[in-house]
Amino acid sequence: MLNIIIFGPPGAGKGTQSELLIEKYNLKHISTGDLFRWHTRNGTELGKRVKEIMNSGNLVSDDITIAMLKEEVEKNPDVNGFLFDGFPRTVAQAEALDKLMESMNTSVHGVIELKVSEEEVRKRIAKRKSIENRADDEEEKLNQRISEYFGKTVHVLPYYRDQNRLKTVNGIGSIEGIFEEISQVADGFEVAKP
Ligand code: ADP
Predict the structure, then answer these.
(1) Labelling 180: which of 7, 16, 97, 168 has CA 20 to 30 A away?
(2) What is the pLDDT of residues 65-78, one digit of tens each?
(3) Which neighbouring-strand residues pair with 31?
């Protein structure tokens, strides 16, 4: 298996690069944000529980998030690998993911951080907002999500850096150029397995 985490602030281009990555390496894409949005859209029990906290731009609790992630991973026992997107966002989630991978006799092979400054992210999201009109993209929620990332989520990075599992790619440039760099990094994870 090849298991990769793509990491970066809202608006870094994780969605675009994820699509390219899953195709090239034949990975199952698991985005916790997409999963939560699916649950809220479909009005499931889980959706009802997380709707308010999501709309405020704050993080859903680790318990709920980890349980949902685990279920999604276990639904896909035969895949070539996973691309985790939006997860982990806390050290507790990172530890839970390592345990889960270990229980499957595999591991997280590496983390790709798409690095984009806070200023650039704010510019990009303002543009995306005018096209997509995502419910949680309203101004104050957006501010909250960006603050959440640069204030808290980034604290997960040292967990992986200390274990030499972190690679940083500059997220500013052309889609193709960035993907080329990301591919080189992913090829390195593949070679360095397990
Ligand atoms: P963004 O576009 O800000 O990167 P996502 O689409 O990944 O956000 O997630 C949207 C929302 O879903 C988050 O603001 C948060 O409320 C919730 N969420 C997603 N992933 C996680 C996670 N790993 N832990 C806690 N909450 C999460």
Answers:
(1) 97
(2) 999 999 999 999 99
(3) 85
Q: For residue 53, how far is its CA from the centre of ligand 1 (angstroms)?
A: 10
Cα 191 to ligand 1 centroid, rounded to whole Å: 31
Ligand 1 atom nearest the C-alpha of 86 is 7
Per-residue pLDDT tens digits for 30-57:
999 999 999 999 999 999 999 999 988 8
Beta carbons within 8 Å of 89's beta carbon, 6+ residues apart: 32, 59, 65, 152, 153, 156
For strand 82-85 and strand 110-115, is the pairing parallel, antiparallel, or unpaired?
A: unpaired
What is the rounded CA–CA span in Å between residue 24 and residue 36? 26
Q: Where do the structural domains in the chain lie, given as residue ranges? A: 2-188
Residue 151 burial by Cβ neighbours in a 10 Å radius (0-12, 13-18, 19+): exposed
The arrangement of secondary structure in 2-188, i.e. its CATH architecture, is: 3-Layer(aba) Sandwich (3.40)
What is the end-to-end Cα distance of the chain in Å, rounded?
Answer: 9
State residue 79 phi and psi, 5-degree precision: -80, 165
